[in-house]
Description:
This protein is of the alpha+beta class. It has helices at 3-24, 28-41, 45-54, 72-75, 99-114, 128-138, 167-176, and strands at residues 62-63, 87-89, 96-98, 120-123, 160-164, 182-183, 192-195, 198-199.
Amino acid sequence: MGIDRVHSRIANIQSRIIALQTQQAAPTVQSTQTTQKTTSSGDTFANYLQDAVAAAPTANKSYKLNAKGIPEDLAAYGNGRIPADALEKVGNTRHKLWAPAAESLTRMMADAEKDGVKIGITDSYRPYTEQVDLARRKGLYSQGGLAAKPGTSEHGWGMATDLDLNSKALGWMKQNADKYGFVNNVARENWHWAYKPKSV
């Protein structure tokens, strides 16, 4: 994670803290109303902190992409060899993606939930050794199986996720995913959604 992104997140968190302090300094009546509203909506400091972290420092950022659409900085690591500091957890899950993809997916899942839609995750970043194991167990996609050739998987770039979607969630994804940079680009797999960063 670059130092500029760290500073941006810290500034974002600080502005949320100031907003909270301002709310607390309001008149007693307003403070009581705010407290009731805050309690009912679950907007605790932890929520503000999570929002600040997920708040879009990379949402509109553009990247220099290689011929395969992979950001050049990310491609330099190699497929399935992305270091831990370039990955980020998706919301409160155990799953990780390349940081901009994780931030976008976190926002998308939160927005879907506001619409009464639950989006689950079954798979995310896949290190090279896991790609090899998956190809052995499920067969290569080119031969009718479900796995990409090791070293070529979008999961290996931390830019793809397999989602747990019921029909309502799938419909929501088809209508909204592109707003968050995600596309369903594998015809046989309506659960596979890849993040496509904007090009410079």
